[in-house]
């Protein structure tokens, strides 16, 4: 198990402070990319009228997802406990295959690289990648 | 045989015409060694890889970044038969270098992130899709001769 060091948490919180003002935009962009580049992920959204980049459902859901990420940053010292209800939601109601967490994480990183090219250094990249992986693990806790 | 749409061909050629080869190869390899430190197992002869600063300024890493870009350019120039173009490279990675092919995906992800950083908003979701498809074909071709 690859845990977050104190330095990782500091790095993530500092980077999040920079990117948080653009959270909704980031969420929308990351989700759009996921749906376009990994079309199998569209299977979870067949109830949407429109899945295209910039569409209303994508915008709304991007914001929802980033709200979850923000919550995770705030609860970074105990993600498992902090994300308990979100884990139950994903496990029992949404039943998203956990492989998709990695896919969405990759697209969030791509958006960070595009929007914050000088801040998203290799050091920040590894800390954020570790954080998103830890977040995914916490979300998977209740699956079985 | 892989089918490329006109959009995909154009997008991929366009990406490679715009990126700085010297920067991208080195930056992607550095990121891979930093973000996925177990990949350092293949670079024992590269000297100082102790921390991010050392990796980023290591001349052997920079030189090898260029080797990687030269390899990608071969694929770019032979997009309709990357599998055949990469036959010897695949044998090399499998039999001589003995690289776990899952690592190819890690480097590919780092390449995507570095290219995204270079191109900015021009790296649209559709362009990203084309680039990742190209990388997927490259990786599949590199895996082909593993037995």
From TrEMBL, chain A:
This is Globin domain-containing protein. The keyword Transmembrane helix does not apply. Signal peptide: none annotated. Pfam families: Globin. Belongs to the globin family. Residues 3-144 form the Globin domain. The lineage of its organism: Eukaryota, Metazoa, Chordata, Craniata, Vertebrata. Involved in oxygen transport from gills to the various peripheral tissues. It comes from Poecilia formosa. One of its GO terms (molecular function) is oxygen binding. GO terms for biological process: hydrogen peroxide catabolic process. InterPro entries: Globin (IPR000971), Globin-like_sf (IPR009050), Globin/Proto (IPR012292), Hemoglobin_a-typ (IPR002338), Hemoglobin_oxygen_transport (IPR050056), Hemoglobin_pi (IPR002339). Keywords: Heme, Iron, Metal-binding, Oxygen transport, Transport. GO terms for cellular component: blood microparticle; haptoglobin-hemoglobin complex; hemoglobin complex.
TrEMBL record, chain B:
GO terms for molecular function: haptoglobin binding; heme binding; metal ion binding; organic acid binding; oxygen binding; oxygen carrier activity; peroxidase activity. InterPro entries: Globin, Globin-like_sf, Globin/Proto, Hemoglobin_b, Hemoglobin_oxygen_transport. Residues 3-147 form the Globin domain. The keyword Transport applies. This is Hemoglobin subunit beta-like. GO terms for biological process: hydrogen peroxide catabolic process. Belongs to the globin family. SUPFAM superfamilies: Globin-like. It comes from the Eukaryota. Keywords: Heme, Iron, Metal-binding, Oxygen transport, Transport. The keyword Iron applies. Gene3D superfamilies: Globins (1.10.490.10). GO terms for cellular component: blood microparticle; haptoglobin-hemoglobin complex; hemoglobin complex. It comes from Poecilia formosa.
């Amino acid at each position: 198990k690859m845990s977050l060091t104190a330095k990782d948490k500091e790095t993530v919180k500092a980077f999040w402070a920079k990117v948080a003002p653009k959270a909704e935009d980031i969420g929308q962009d990351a989700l759009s990319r996921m749906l376009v580049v990994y079309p199998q992920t569209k299977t979870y959204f067949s109830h949407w009228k429109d899945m295209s980049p910039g569409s209303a459902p994508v915008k709304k859901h991007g914001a929802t997802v980033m709200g979850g990420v923000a919550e995770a940053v705030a609860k970074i010292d105990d993600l498992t406990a902090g994300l308990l209800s979100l884990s139950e939601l994903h496990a029992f109601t949404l039943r998203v295959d956990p492989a998709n967490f990695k896919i969405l994480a990759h697209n969030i990183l791509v958006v960070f690289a595009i929007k914050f090219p000088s801040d998203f250094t290799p050091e920040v990249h590894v800390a954020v990648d570790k954080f998103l992986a830890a977040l995914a693990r916490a979300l998977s806790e209740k699956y079985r | 045989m892989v089918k490329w749409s006109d959009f995909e061909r154009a997008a991929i050629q366009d990406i490679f015409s715009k990126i700085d080869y010297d920067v991208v190869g080195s930056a992607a390899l550095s990121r891979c060694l930093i973000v996925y430190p177990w990949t350092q197992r293949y670079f024992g002869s590269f000297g100082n890889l102790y921390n991010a600063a050392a990796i980023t300024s290591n001349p052997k890493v920079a030189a090898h970044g260029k080797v990687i870009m030269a390899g990608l350019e071969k694929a770019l120039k032979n997009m309709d038969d990357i599998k055949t173009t990469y036959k010897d490279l695949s044998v090399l990675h499998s039999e001589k270098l003995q690289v776990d092919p899952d690592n190819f995906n890690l480097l590919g992800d780092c390449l995507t992130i570095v290219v995204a950083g270079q191109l900015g908003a021009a790296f649209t979701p559709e362009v990203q899709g084309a680039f990742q498809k190209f990388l997927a074909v490259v990786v599949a071709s590199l895996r082909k001769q593993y037995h």
